[in-house]
């Protein structure tokens, strides 16, 4: 409790402190003020009252311009983190992530200079009894085989096994085409990818500036090249803008069919209702954008429902969904924003912004224990955000909160809460 003999003096000091604080806040730029916006209704557990940044992976784990990351979805492979490396067209796999016995390996398919050239993003999809969870990758490439030939734009999403007995293991030195499972070729400079269902994915086509739906249907097994069951649908009204070298990641909320796109070049986040049944379909077989004549379907989709979720953002790149919260990383300033989504997913309220100080933040992932992980690309690092404990959710970390079980008591003269730090407050 406050010492009664020093009460008036402390009160005067408190008033002066409050006046000085108000003056400083008035001089603070609005962007910084937004970054500290908080209320009892907008507490973001992943951010906490403050946080530590824990380095998970570095160049010692063969990270080389990493741009995306995801935890393996198989419960039999817990804490297994996959990281996509642009500079080496490879995947770093971190086992037992964050644990004392953490270790890593790096895998590069022998045909990665086409099927994973300049990888920008990847997404896990459906489970397969032979291949484990299948994943698909996006390539920011016009197909040069890592500079060995002139670009021909024969490029698009590739399908892969995640079984460690298959990925970058099968057909590495024979007449087949490595361990990839399938590939479709109508989207050079892919900037983002999100799983829909089955072997179908949404693709951020950076070359033509359109959202594209790709369905591989049945894969052709590892190393094959049969594409005649491929379905490609171009959503020509959804036009994300590419920023060279910065992925525009995407994620689908499978509970309501709303797809979220980090529209990097336009500084906004888009939403698209992928369950909209009122769209118009036009056959565009033979279009100049079609590079593979063997497709089962090549069409244009119009009149889909879509909108802008957030705008005025500094190069949004990474995107992650957890429940009704959407996290967006801003490559332009190293910040991460949290939004509270409306029930229909078509609007959102800004909850809180934190500054990671990352030079080139890209992919985001909500991992074990609901903690956020992000890629710091130019530093070749993956970082985990560890929020400081705050039992009463009052934005005062427990180590600085004398009454850490009761909300709102951190700066009150509260009987029953000991003055553990000797600052005159209970």
Q: What is the count of structural domains?
A: 2
Largest sheet: 6 strands, mixed
Looking at how many chains there are and whether they match, the oligomeric state comes to single chain
* CATH C-level name of the largest domain: Mainly Beta
Alpha-carbon distance between the two ends: 5 Å
The appropriate CATH architecture of the largest domain is 6 Propeller
Calculate the mean pLDDT score and round it: 90
How many E-type strands? 26
Strand order of the largest sheet: 10-11-12-13-18-17
How does this model look, in words?
- With 426 residues, the chain is mostly beta strands.
- It has 2 domains: 30-388, TolB, C-terminal domain (Neuraminidase), CATH 2.120.10.30; 398-426, no CATH class.
- The chain has 3 helices and 26 strands.
- Strands 10-11-12-13-18-17 form a 6-stranded mixed β-sheet, with no helix packed on it.
- It is globular, with a radius of gyration of 24 Å.
- The chain starts with 6 loop residues before the first helix and ends in a 39-residue tail after the last strand.
- The relative contact order is 0.14.
- Mean pLDDT is 90; it is low at 1-40.
What is shown here, in short?
With 426 residues, the chain is mainly beta.
Task: Give a topology summary.
Blueprint: H1 7-27, H2 30-35, E1 51-57, E2 66-71, E3 81-85, E4 90-95, E5 103-107, H3 112-115, E6 119-128, E7 132-139, E8 158-160, E9 182-183, E10 190-197, E11 200-205, E12 210-215, E13 231-235, E14 250-253, E15 258-263, E16 268-273, E17 280-283, E18 297-302, E19 306-310, E20 316-322, E21 325-330, E22 335-341, E23 348-355, E24 361-366, E25 372-376, E26 381-387
Parallel strand pairs: 13-18
Antiparallel strand pairs: 1-26, 2-3, 3-4, 4-5, 6-7, 7-8, 8-9, 10-11, 11-12, 12-13, 14-15, 15-16, 16-19, 17-18, 20-21, 21-22, 22-23, 24-25, 25-26
């Amino acid at each position: 409790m406050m010492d009664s003999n020093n009460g008036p003096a402390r009160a005067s000091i408190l008033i002066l402190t409050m006046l000085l604080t108000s003056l400083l806040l008035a001089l603070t730029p609005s962007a910084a003020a937004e970054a500290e916006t908080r209320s009892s209704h907008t507490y973001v557990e992943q951010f906490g009252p403050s946080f530590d940044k824990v380095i998970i992976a570095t160049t010692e784990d063969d990270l080389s311009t990493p741009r995306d990351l995801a935890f393996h979805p198989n419960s039999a492979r817990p804490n297994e983190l996959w990281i996509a490396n642009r500079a080496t067209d490879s995947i770093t796999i971190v086992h037992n992530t964050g644990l004392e016995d953490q270790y890593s390996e790096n895998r590069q398919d022998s045909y990665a200079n086409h099927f994973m050239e300049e990888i920008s993003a990847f997404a896990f999809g459906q489970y397969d009894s032979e291949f484990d969870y299948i994943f698909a990758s996006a390539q920011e490439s016009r197909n040069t085989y890592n500079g060995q030939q002139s670009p021909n734009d024969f490029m698009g999403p590739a399908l892969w096994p995640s079984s460690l007995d298959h990925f970058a293991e099968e057909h590495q030195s024979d007449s087949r085409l490595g361990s990839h499972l399938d590939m479709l070729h109508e989207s050079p400079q892919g900037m983002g990818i999100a799983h829909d269902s089955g072997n179908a994915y949404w693709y951020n086509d950076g070359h033509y500036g359109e959202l594209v739906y790709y369905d591989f249907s049945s894969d052709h097994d590892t190393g094959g090249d049969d594409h005649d069951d491929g379905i490609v649908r171009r959503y020509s009204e959804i036009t994300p803008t590419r920023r060279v070298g910065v992925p525009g990641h995407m994620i689908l909320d499978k509970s309501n069919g709303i797809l979220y796109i980090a529209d990097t070049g336009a500084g906004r986040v888009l939403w698209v209702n992928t369950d909209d049944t009122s769209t118009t379909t036009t056959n565009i077989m033979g279009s100049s954008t079609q590079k593979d004549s063997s497709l089962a379907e090549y069409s244009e989709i119009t009149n889909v429902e879509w909108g802008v979720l957030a705008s005025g953002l500094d190069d949004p790149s990474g995107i992650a969904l957890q429940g009704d919260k959407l996290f967006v990383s801003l490559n332009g300033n190293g910040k991460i924003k949290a939004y509270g989504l409306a029930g229909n997913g078509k609007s959102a309220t800004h909850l809180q912004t934190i500054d990671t100080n990352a030079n080139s933040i890209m992919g985001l992932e909500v991992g074990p224990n609901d903690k956020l992980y992000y890629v710091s690309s130019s530093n070749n690092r993956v970082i985990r955000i560890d929020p400081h404990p705050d039992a009463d959710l009052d934005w005062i970390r427990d180590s600085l909160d004398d009454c850490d079980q009761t909300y709102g008591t951190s700066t009150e003269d509260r009987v029953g809460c000991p003055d553990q730090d000797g600052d005159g407050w209970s």
